[in-house]
């Protein structure tokens, strides 16, 4: 619990609304892992899914009830709908499943826009109010805490405020203690939304929550504006995952509430975990982290302009809206064409290399980087290659773990249309000369496979390194000379990620350089043995 | 021009502030292509870069002035700084370079936060005001329209409102006609920002613009809130590209201004082009389009099954905040703007193909494009391949000028470090079977050289086609299956340029497909004989 106790709710719906994002498909074990990470942050409520409607969600709640998921901070929430029109609440199977889930909290979704009640639900407003009141009361009588998600509230309130407000009233009459205003189609903007929230709070005195979708790119802003207008319960998803453009991003909402509005909505020690948890949740969702995400993205505090680097060294606070370490992130200086000594010194500090004591080495590295960048290299996104360059210049590198003698790649587009890529490498490793041949989908894949085959018997860690991403950029600016290819390779060993770069007129050689750097960089790390 | 004329400015800074995004590196030709696309949308101003500070930007303005870039709607803007402290304005080389760029508009960046003036600029406020006034006046006297970007304005105004406001005053005294309040570190939230904008407008009566960064995930919301508070000039970047978390996304800002606030800030016909232009600009930046981007993302109107499915069928307007076609988007998951019948009809017209009379062919092409796009193809930036597909479907294509039997590419990284790429093609052309072998810098270059060598004796126009640009994107979205490579080839015959696409698991085969399309497309043109 935070110092705010129950007076402010951080309510996470990654496992229910977040799972609506195209491409996400959580297993039950994934869901348990997600819930544990969210709980470790100290969110107040974790909406686990819709038991009864989705078999995986039913199983998730069953496993949680059986003790597979013990939460330290959060309360588990089952999501579901009110009873059907014309059905007695205790006879409604879907409502029954919400009880069976055994979660202490239930969030019910209900329609609050008269057009939806009449056109989609095909009933009248009076029956809608009864459905809400009956279902809330039934669950409260069974010992549950109940929140109401008022679907399409803002459009409904604009169209027919009376129906919208009476939906909320019906829930409160039944015993709901938070009514959540949902911008279901995501069409709101902050100033208008804040006005409505303020209006509802003033007219009803109810405890109001907010649930925003990102269809105007304003979900985070709308959530914050709602809090400023009186909402004390925010529904978010990790990394903004959700249907269509997504939901309000938990990390940006929490970052803003804590660092901008001064509301301690999470335990103090949790804020520095935001970046780590965000990336771990991306991992579980099998979605590449958004490098440009506010607060937690790897670029969120990355400065490119060489222009500013010297001023940043004087006082980083002049250029960052918060201290990146507050949210567990770090400032990065991107080394570009405009790189100067100041940016490289800062960069060295990131690697744990103190360059201030080595002015000569610094001069040499700056010169070398300028030469390489003039030839098409770019270290902006290739920290691992830059680190190798720095350490090499400081004579901190041992002999490389392997050296190349030669390679050959053959590509055959055969008469029958079949395509074969085959590579042979000759390398020296562990005092031996090794020759290995392998096939792949393409020339680089074949080369990578042949190299690993050659190294495997001598360097056992080789297979712990996986190629995560591979980017190719053809640099055609150099008119009159041959085009140059720049390859970026992102590797991972399951614990960390690093990026290397290779540049050459030949795309395969450029890829080879980046692949080699990736393995050499891994060989530096203490865990490689 | 829109119906709003000069009274509201959509000001794009993709080419300057957007280029600060980690990973973006525009060539001069890229910059010209970006400017053309933005101009086609009807934005009022295109900030092209910082002439004098960056050689590529200097070249861009020189090429624009030489007639390589003719704008229909927009005015070109040169960005730069005020004169240095203690230097006479007409002796300042950087200011001189702004004039030399020959752009009709200049945007000057100036510090408006006293701490930045004293700590980073190391001068006093009086000299800062003089720097602003002198530089604006000098440029205005030379016939330029001048806008002022007041850097770190919101922090500066909070810290010392007098210095912040007097910076604006100095610009207006010099003759600037818009003062742009910049949230340079991106730390603002909408309600507070709107209050400041309102306050500045009320106190000064100046024409105010807004420039927001996305560090709180509120750049779009902040921009809209500023307009509601009186700003009449919005600075944005395509897809929100920019330093750190990025800038306010042009497409979301425009979408919100037009569809939510009813401000016709772009020509009416442009709105339906937002999605296409957004994707084409992502292609040029070599960044995968964000599928969850508001308005223009491929998922922005994608509904996952469940709760809403049946009701959406009844009335989609109940579930979408706008009609997706308003912004050229569609309601299905894999629908891009190309898959719509209407846009394909329009596209056909561009090629001189009347598809309105061929509804069956249109249906087939739409289906075929959807299948190809599901497999990783993209025709957004490959008009020439799309034209071939359309003509093929209409049976308008003669037999292709050549057919492939097989090819082989061999790459040797030799013992002495030398690298040789050699390709052999076997093709049928002009009734003969031809075998040709050639070398190149890399596998694709060698293949291209061998193909030309084989075709040259039969197709005299082959050498008039030059490869202008070559882009590669690895599509790693398909987890569990092999990654797919998409290659875009831009060709020229000195008169016109055309782009073709190839997709395959093997990069060389993908390149081969795009190269072949490029030559086949040339063979269609009347000038090929």
From TrEMBL, chains A, B:
A GO MF term: (R)-citramalate synthase activity
Catalytic reaction list: pyruvate + acetyl-CoA + H2O = (3R)-citramalate + CoA + H(+)
Enzyme Commission code(s) on record: 2.3.3.21
Pathway the protein contributes to: Amino-acid biosynthesis; L-isoleucine biosynthesis; 2-oxobutanoate from pyruvate: step 1/3
Biological process terms in GO annotation: isoleucine biosynthetic process; L-leucine biosynthetic process
Pfam families: HCS_D2 (PF22617), HMGL-like (PF00682), LeuA_dimer (PF08502)
Keyword tags: Acyltransferase, Amino-acid biosynthesis, Branched-chain amino acid biosynthesis, Isoleucine biosynthesis, Transferase
Domain Pyruvate carboxyltransferase: from-to ranges: 8-278
Cited PANTHER family: (R)-CITRAMALATE SYNTHASE, ALPHA-IPM SYNTHASE/HOMOCITRATE SYNTHASE
Family, similarity comment: Belongs to the alpha-IPM synthase/homocitrate synthase family.
NCBIfam families cross-referenced by the UniProt entry: citramal_synth
Protein name according to UniProt: Citramalate synthase
Species annotation: Saccharothrix violaceirubra
């Amino acid at each position: 619990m935070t110092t705010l106790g129950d007076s402010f709710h951080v309510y996470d719906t990654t496992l229910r609304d977040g799972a609506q994002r195209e491409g996400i498909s959580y297993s039950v074990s994934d869901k348990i892992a997600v819930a544990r990470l969210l709980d470790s942050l100290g969110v107040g409520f974790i909406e686990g899914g819709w038991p009864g409607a989705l078999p995986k969600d039913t199983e998730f709640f069953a496993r949680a009830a059986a003790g597979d998921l013990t939460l330290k901070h959060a309360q588990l929430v089952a999501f579901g709908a009110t009873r059907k029109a014309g059905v007695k609440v205790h006879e409604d199977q879907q409502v029954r499943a919400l009880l069976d889930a055994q979660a202490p909290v239930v969030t019910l979704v209900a329609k609050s826009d008269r057009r939806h009640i009449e056109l989609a639900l095909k009933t009248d407003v009076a029956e809608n109010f009864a459905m809400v009141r009956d279902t809330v009361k039934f669950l409260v009588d069974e010992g549950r805490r109940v929140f109401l998600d008022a679907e399409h509230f803002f459009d409904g309130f604009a169209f027919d405020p009376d129906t919208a407000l009476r939906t909320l009233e019906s829930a409160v009459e039944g015993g709901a203690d938070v009514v959540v205003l949902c911008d279901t189609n995501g069409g709101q903007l902050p100033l208008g939304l804040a006005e409505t929230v303020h209006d509802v709070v003033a007219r009803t005195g109810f405890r109001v929550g907010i649930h925003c979708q990102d269809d105007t790119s304003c979900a985070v802003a709308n959530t914050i504006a709602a809090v400023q207008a009186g909402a004390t319960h925010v529904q978010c998803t990790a990394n903004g995952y959700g249907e269509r453009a997504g939901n309000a991003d938990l990390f940006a909402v929490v970052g803003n509430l804590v660092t901008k509005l001064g509301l301690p909505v999470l335990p103090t020690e949790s804020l520095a975990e935001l970046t780590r948890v965000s990336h771990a949740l991306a991992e579980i969702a099998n979605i590449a982290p958004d490098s440009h995400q506010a607060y937690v993205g790897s670029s969120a505090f990355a400065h490119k302009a060489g222009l500013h680097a010297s001023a940043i060294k004087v006082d980083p606070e002049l250029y960052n809206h918060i201290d990146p370490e507050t949210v567990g992130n770090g400032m990065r200086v991107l080394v570009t064409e405009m790189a100067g000594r100041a940016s490289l010194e800062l960069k060295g500090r990131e690697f744990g290399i103190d360059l201030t004591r080595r002015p000569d080495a610094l001069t040499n590295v700056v010169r070398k980087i300028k030469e390489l960048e003039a030839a098409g290299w770019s270290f902006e996104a290739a920290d691992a290659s830059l680190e190798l360059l720095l350490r090499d210049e400081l004579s901190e590198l041992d002999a490389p773990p392997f050296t190349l003698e030669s390679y050959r790649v053959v590509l055959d587009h055969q008469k029958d249309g079949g395509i074969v890529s085959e590579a042979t490498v000759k390398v020296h490793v562990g005092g031996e000369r090794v020759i290995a041949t392998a096939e792949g989908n393409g020339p680089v894949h074949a080369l990578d496979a042949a190299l690993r085959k050659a190294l495997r018997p001598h360097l056992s860690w080789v297979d712990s390194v996986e190629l995560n991403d591979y980017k190719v950029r053809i640099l055609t600016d150099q008119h009159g000379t041959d085009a140059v290819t720049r390859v970026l390779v992102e590797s991972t060993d399951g614990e960390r990620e690093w990026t290397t770069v290779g540049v050459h007129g030949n795309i395969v050689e450029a890829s080879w350089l980046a692949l080699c750097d990736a393995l050499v960089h891994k060989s530096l790390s203490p865990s490689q043995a």
